[in-house]
Each structure stands twice: as structure tokens, then as C-alpha cells.
Amino acid sequence: MAASPFDHYRTDVGRFFDDLSNDYTAAIERCFPKYREMLIALLDYLPADRQFSNILELGCGTGNLTILLRETYPDAALQVVDVSSESLQLCRERLTSRADVTYTTADFRQLDYSPNSFDLVISSIAIHHLPSPAKQTLFQSIYHWLSPDGVFTFADQCAGATPDLDERHLRLWQQHSAAAGATAEEWQMWMAHQTEHDHHDSLVSQLDWLRDADFATVDCTWRCWLWSVLQARKNSPGSGS
Ligand SMILES: C[S@@+](CC[C@H](N)C(=O)[O-])C[C@H]1O[C@@H](n2cnc3c(N)ncnc32)[C@H](O)[C@@H]1O
Predict the structure, then answer these.
(1) Span of 70-74, 188-192, 203-207 with lowest mean pLDDT
(2) What are the sequence ranges of the domains in the chain?
(3) Residue nearest atom 18 in ligand 1 by C-alpha distance
(4) Could you tell which of 17, 94, 110 is best to mutate to test the pocket of ligand 1, judged by most ligand atoms within 8 Å of the CB?
(5) Which ligand 1 atom lies nearest to the CA of residue 18?
(6) Cβ neighbours, 10 Å, residue 30
(7) Is 38 within 8 Å of 155 (Cβ atoms)?
(8) Does pTM top 0.90 for this prediction?
(9) What pLDDT is stored for residue 31 in this prediction?
């Protein structure tokens, strides 16, 4: 079979999360003490009067957000995507009794859905693995995949607007993760992962790219250290959304 342009990427990030999959939840909760609060914030800021029925989750990993989505929108059809097949397998096992979940092993850059396929696209700490131009292309694609009243929200790691703010994000994160029990080895592991696989763009750039993709309203609904929750709605209030 001919080599795919995504093979190299898949080997790197996919394998990292394949290897971590069994320990992922314990590691992320220890190393990022606000992780659960962030996942709840993602859902808390969605329009309260909406029952989403077609949801796409990008980078579901082992399913921590997927389980919350299933509980919050029990009747929705869920499509979940991840490049790590081991993580996806764990996600599937954890949701085993829950129907109406479709699992896809793929790189985000390979995805191709029809317009109006989803009313909610959601993601948690996954999109920062894409370089800036690929993020912008993904935001544009998501706009087209969403229905006219669709919502896109994602939690992610963002760069500070200046080097000193960026440095402060890292130091505060390091202090709080150490206080929550993360070891020096774990900290080194995440720093090496960041150098190899992460592409942090500023919060302001990403809000701009969402506007450039034509989203009518964009906002940051929660923020702590380098993590932010962004939300973009396709239509403005009063235009039928
Ligand atoms: C830090 S984990 C987050 C998992 C889960 N969403 C959570 O909040 O715990 C990032 C996930 O994104 C996936 N990922 C990273 N880059 C990806 C890409 N380009 N396409 C698909 N999945 C990707 C990884 O395999 C991993 O499972």
C-alpha cells in the first residue's frame, strides 16, 4: 500500500497516546488538576435550551468527555474520532452499553463530512496537536460540517500573548501539578511531549481564526493557565439559533 502523508504523524502522536492509554486518565488528573473542571465547563456553557442530536467529538482519547456527552445528551448520535487506535478501543470498552456511538480511527486532516452533518462539534485538548495552518483549515471545515444553528466548542492549550505570560502559564501549571502529586519524571515527560507534538497558538489568534471561518459569535468561556475553552456559534442570537 502506498505511504500516506499522515503515516509519520500517526506514528508519532498516535503512538504516544497508544502507549499512554491505560494510564491516561490518572496521569492527566494528577498532572492537570483542573482537568475535570475544564470538561464540565465545556458542557456548562453550551446553550441550555438545546438538545443536540448529532455530535462530533474530535480527539476523544479514552472517552472521558465522551461519557459526559453521553450522559448529557442521551438521545444524540455520537461520532468520535481519534488517531490513537488504543485510546479509541478503551473509549469503546468504557461506552460499551451505550448505543449510537460511531468510532473512527483517523487524523483530523483526513476527515470529510457533508455540510449540515452535526449540530455540535466538540473537542478537549486535542486540536493543539495541529500546526497553525491545519487548525485554520479544520475550523473552516467544522463551519461547513455544522448545521445553521450549530455550535463548535473546544478546550485546549493556548500560548500566552507574550513570552512572560507564556512562562507564567508553565510555572503555575508546574507548581499546581506538583502539589497534586505529579512527579518530576511526569513533568519531564509532558515537556518532551510538548516539544515534539504540541503547537500552541494564542487564544486571540484562535478566536480570530474562528471569526475568519465565518462563525457569527466567538468567545472564551473558561480559562486557567494555558488551558482555555472556546465556543463559536454559526448564527448570531436573534437569527434563528
Ligand atoms: C491529550 S489527549 C485528550 C483526550 C481526551 N479528549 C481528553 O480530554 O482527555 C489528545 C488526544 O488527541 C488525539 N489526537 C492528537 N492529534 C490528533 C489528530 N491529528 N487527529 C486525531 N486525533 C488526534 C490523541 O491521539 C489523543 O487521544
Answers:
(1) 188-192
(2) 7-233
(3) 107
(4) 17
(5) 25
(6) 17
(7) yes
(8) yes
(9) 85
